Structure formats: C-alpha cells, structure tokens
TrEMBL record, chain A:
CDD domains: PBP2_PotD_PotF_like_2. Spermidine binds at residue 93. The lineage of its organism: Bacteria, Bacillati, Bacillota, Bacilli, Bacillales. GO terms for cellular component: periplasmic space. This is Spermidine/putrescine ABC transporter substrate-binding protein. It is found in: Periplasm.
UniProtKB/TrEMBL annotation, chain B:
Pfam families: BPD_transp_1 (PF00528). One of its GO terms (biological process) is transmembrane transport. Keywords: Cell membrane, Membrane, Transmembrane, Transmembrane helix, Transport. InterPro entries: MetI-like, MetI-like_sf. It comes from Pullulanibacillus camelliae. This is Spermidine/putrescine ABC transporter permease. Its main location: membrane. It comes from the Bacteria. Belongs to the binding-protein-dependent transport system permease family. CysTW subfamily. It is a multi-pass membrane protein. The keyword Transmembrane applies. The chain crosses the membrane at residues 12-33, 61-83, 90-114, 134-158, 201-218, 238-259. CDD domains: TM_PBP2 (cd06261).
C-alpha cells in the first residue's frame, strides 16, 4: 500500500514538472524566441490546408489556424483583446470600421514584393486607399441563383424579376440586412449605400410586397436547401453560388442588371499581432501566383491575383458569372461603412420586413 | 458552532449565485441604459414600447403559449399512461433520451425530414394527400418546439402522479365517483403542482427561442430571442438587446410568481 501511494505521488510530481516545463517553453518561444508561431484568423473552410503545410515547410513557422463566421464576431474578438491573431481576413466595410477603431497595423509594402500580381482593378479601393492596411484575398458579388427547370425554363436577369407573381413561395433570402435592403434599393434604382430616409422607407415597402414570394430567410443552410431543390430561387454571395452549382448543375447564377454588391475579403494584420514579420511573410506567400491559383481552385471564389488567374483552367477564368469584366464590376458597389446608427436602422427595417405577414 | 458550519456550506452556493446569476443580471440592466454610441439614456426603453417590439413581444407570448398548451395536452395523458405501464423506468428513459442529443443536430435533422423530398412528404404522398410545404410554416415550428420541450413537461407531471396516494383514487371509486369525476376532482387537483412546474419549464425557455425560428421557421416567426441575438451579434446594439432581455426577465419573474407553489395554510 505504501509503495502504491509513493508511486502515485511520484507520478503526480513528474506530471506537474512536465506541465511547468512545457508552459515555460511555450512562454519563452512566444516572447523571446519570436517568429516561431503564426496565428491566422480566417473564415471557415477558406484556405487550402495544403498551402498552410507548404508555408510551414518553407519558413519553419508553425501556423495556428482559427476560424470565425461573421465579421462582427471577428471584430469583437480582436477588440476585446486577449488574442494573438497575426493575420485576419475581414470584409471591406469591416476594414473601414477597424481602421476607425485603430485595430490594424499598417502594412510594410517592401516586405510584400508579390503585391504587384494583384490586378490594378482591385487595388486602391474605397475602403482602404493605397492599400495601407489590407491586401485583397478573394472577391465576389451578390446575385441570384435559380433553377431554370423548376421555373419552366424562365430566365432571371434582374432584381425586379423576383417580384414576378409566378415565383410565389419560391425565393430563399440570405439572412443579412445589408444584402436584402440592398437588393430592394438597387431594384428601385438607388444606391445600396443609400441613407436617405424616404428611399429606405420606399425600399422597405417594396420588400413587404415581396413577402408572398419569400419562402424563408435563412443562414448558411441556404446552400443545402437550394442544392436539394427546396426552392427555385435564392439570393446568395457568388462564392456560395459556385459551391451550390458544383453540387446541382441545374442551377445558374446571375448578377442582376440593376447593379449589386461587390465585396472583398482582405488580409490584414490586426494590432493583436505578435509576429508581424511572419504575418508579412504569410501574406506575401499567399500572393504568390501559384499559391493563389491553388487556393482559388480549392475554395472556388474569385481571385484578385492577375497572374494566378492565368494559371487557372480556361473554363473558370473566362466564366463571366464569377469573373465579370470591368464594365460590369464598375456598375457594382462596395458596401460603405454606414456607421453604427445607420446599420442599426437598416437592421430595424429588415426586422420589420421579416415580421410582415403574408 | 453549528451556524458557523452552515455558513461554510453556504459559500459555494452564494459564490455561484453572485457570480453567475446576480452579476449578469445587474450587467444586463446596466447595459440597457446605454445607446449605440455609448451614451447614458432611456431611449431603449422608449423604443421597446414602439409597435415593432410590442408586436414581437405579443407574438413571442402567443407562440410560447401554444407550445406550452400543446405540450400539456400531449404530456398529461402520456404521463398518466406511463404510471400504469409495467416497465416505467424504461419508458421514462426513452422519453428523456432525445434530450441528450444536441438541439442543433435535432433541428438540422428536421430540415431533412420536413423537406420537399423528405420522409414526411413521402408519407403524405403515400396516403394520398400529396406534397405539402412543411418547412418554414407555423406547423413545423410548433411541431419541432413541442418535440424539443415535451420531456420537460412529462417529467414533473409523471413525478406528481407517482407521488399520488392510490388509496385516494380507490376511495373516490368506492364512494361512487365515475372515472371522469375521479380524474377531475381527485387526480388533477392533486397533480396541479406538477402541471405548474411543467408549464414553467416549457413556457419560459419557449419565450426566448431563437435558433429554431431561423432554421425551422425560416425567420417567418420572429420572437424576442431572435431580436436579442441580432442586436448582440449583428447590429452590436448591446443596449437594445439588454433592454429586451430585461423585459424577458421581468416577464419570467411574473410567471414564476403567478404559477409558483402556494403554501397551503
């Protein structure tokens, strides 16, 4: 019995000693050693895992990959502190918010030689003039996915087509105030960044008329529901559309002719970064045309990297639905940061639309 | 000496209550007085009394009431039946079992079951009714909510029935009471406490449902819970979210007081 107790005590002591040692080692690595680990904070399933391995092999930096599912959640986490994210991938309007709150570290362009491969079309955008803080990662549009078979061969080309009486109970909307209010504003010929109260009320009234056609307003399930033909029409982001279409080839994607949203997800270095040098190395690595092409093929979204686009299969890079030409994208708008109050107002109107009964 | 020991035993309880019950409630009340720009204001409370939020509150109460009522109608006979079966514990276990599965998983399963090409519609077609839209309707919302909450209604009623002294029922029969009279005058009044706690256990969480409203009802049903989620996660208007939460807490407290056990005296 005594021997058993002694053995137990010994095991405990050794275990605690190892725990202490490993925590000391981790601590010294993070602070003194520096540059051994890199924490990346990205959307779920938004990078080719092979590329992370390749980066680790090339640089010897160990990558910790964490994910988020909304810009707001990501920003809150960085704001609250206590995290050590070195690279994050927020969307356009969130970048201007993060700039306002001083949550970003300016990029050192001399450490990003591969920046030259990004198409000038996607540089110097409204939310970050001169790309002082951000580098585009993927881009896309908001549009309509429809199942022509279920609609009896009917084609959809515009937002106003959604109000067609034949589409009764056939539309799935994505649960986003900016997206849904935006499509109504666009259908009326207004900007999707409109803040004129009369225009907003008009847009909401028009949305109420859409109610009979709306089957549901859902989140990520929209991909599954559309692929399973639960509804004929869906308002989605182009990246999701590409994913749904690869599962169900009866579906088609269209960028409505009245205009729509053009969005960018961008790599930034948040102020929580511990390994700024490693973060630059990672961003530069992802800008390498070969890597960017591999990533675009895996994720299925549109790459802003001109050289990478040339490396992609012809049927992908010439697909006007996912790589619209400059004439089309010039008509599209990027979301402006409307400020908290206006955003709350958009959400309030969206909420009223949701509560409007058939 | 004895009281000192008692005080020591109280420490974990008091710590728990203060840290995880009182402090969060005070924080919610504190946040409810700030607007989106972080200024001290009563605007949130004024805004709550606008038609949008009042309508939302009314619909939350209505749906929570329906969920509770349907659960009760199904749960009472079930509990009664359970007390009469041979393998009580086994049947009870089967009823509790689904609560071990994550809520989100169950909700996703219903997305498949109620889908246009799901088993529910296949069955409807088989019996000649034809395909119906089940998902994103009031029916599917109530069905799934009742399915999720019903164990919490059955259990307290079952316990109350178990505690009931069978000789009282025998006495009622001996004195010439019909089965219906026995139920109405003896069984039901004596199990009323079980019914009350079952109703609390269903009504209060049903009032703040949010995830199912999107997954199963496709945002066609908007409850106060949905609005709180949106204010905290999307608009970042923590003040308004907290204000709605304060109203929910008050509503719940009132329900607890009204349906609470009264001391007979």
């Amino acid at each position: 019995m005594k021997a058993l107790v002694r053995a137990f005590i010994l095991v405990f002591i050794i275990a605690f000693a190892f725990m202490f040692l490993s925590s000391r080692l981790n601590a010294t690595q993070d602070f003194a050693g520096g540059g051994k680990t890199l924490t990346i904070y990205n959307w779920g399933d938004y990078i080719d895992p092979q590329l992370i391995k390749k980066f680790e092999q090339q640089t010897g930096i160990q990558v910790i990959y964490q994910t988020f599912d909304s810009n707001e959640a990501m920003m809150t986490k960085i704001e609250q502190g206590g995290t050590t994210f070195d690279v994050a991938v927020p969307s356009d309007y969130t970048i201007s918010k993060m700039k306002e709150e001083h949550l970003l570290i300016p990029l050192d362009h001399s450490q990003l030689p591969n920046l030259k491969y990004i198409s000038p079309r996607f540089m110097n955008l409204s939310f970050d003039k001169g790309n002082k803080y951000s580098v585009p990662y993927f881009w896309g549009t908001v549009g309509i996915v429809y199942n022509a078979d279920m609609l009896g061969g009917k084609k959809i080309t515009s937002w106003n087509d959604l109000w067609d009486k034949d589409l009764k109970n056939q539309i799935l909307l994505v649960d986003g105030a900016r997206e849904v209010m935006g499509l109504s504003l666009n259908s009326l010929g207004y900007s999707l960044n409109d803040t004129n109260e009369a225009h907003l009320q008009q847009a909401k009234a028009k949305l109420n008329q859409l109610t009979p056609n709306v089957k549901a307003i859902v989140g990520d399930e929209i991909k599954m529901l559309l692929a399973n033909e639960e509804a004929a029409v869906g308002v989605v982001w182009s990246g999701d559309a590409a994913e749904i279409m690869s599962e169900n080839n009866k579906l088609n994607y269209v960028i409505p002719k009245e205009g729509s949203n053009l969005w960018f997800d961008n790599m930034v270095i948040p102020k929580t970064a511990k390994n700024v040098k490693g973060a630059h190395a990672f961003i530069n690595f992802m800008l390498d045309p070969k890597n960017a092409a591999q990533n675009a093929e895996y994720v299925g979204y549109s790459t802003p990297n001109e050289k990478a686009l040339k490396l992609l299969p012809k049927d992908v890079s010439t697909d006007k639905r996912f790589y619209p030409d400059k004439a089309t994208t010039d008509k599209l708008e990027v979301y402006d940061n409307l400020g908290k109050r206006m955003l709350a107002h958009y959400n309030e109107l969206f909420l009223e639309f949701k509560m409007h009964h058939k | 000496m004895q009281t000192r020991y008692k005080n020591i035993y109280l420490i974990p309880y008091v710590l728990w209550i203060v840290l995880f019950v009182i402090a969060p409630i005070l924080l919610i009340i504190y946040y409810s007085f700030f607007n989106i720009e972080g200024h001290l204001t009563f605007d949130n409370y004024i805004q709550f009394f606008t038609p949008v939020y009042l309508k939302m509150a009314a619909s939350s109460f209505w749906y929570a009431f329906l969920i509770m009522a349907i659960s009760l109608i199904i749960a009472y006979p079930t509990a009664l039946l359970l007390t009469r079966t041979k393998h009580k514990q086994l049947w009870l276990l089967l009823i509790i079992l689904p609560t071990w599965i994550n809520l989100l998983l169950k909700a996703y399963a219903f997305l498949g079951i109620f889908g246009t090409y799901g088993p529910a519609n296949t069955f409807l077609q088989f019996i000649g009714i034809g395909t119906k839209q089940l998902l994103f309707t009031d029916f599917s919302f109530l069905f799934v909510s009742v399915y999720i909450f019903i164990p919490f209604m059955i259990l307290p009623i079952f316990n109350a029935l178990e505690e009931l002294n069978p000789s009282l029922i025998d006495a009622s029969r001996d004195l010439g009471g019909s089965p219906w009279t026995t139920f109405r005058r003896v069984i039901f009044p004596l199990t009323l406490d079980g019914v009350k706690s079952g109703c609390q256990a269903v009504f209060i969480p049903a009032l703040s449902l949010f995830m199912i409203t999107r997954l199963i009802a496709g945002n066609r049903v908007i409850t106060l819970g949905t609005a709180i989620e949106e204010h905290f996660l999307v608009t970042q208007d923590w003040g308004m979210g907290a204000t709605i939460a304060v109203f929910l807490i008050i509503a719940m407290a009132i329900i607890m007081i009204l349906t609470g056990k009264r001391r007979r005296g």
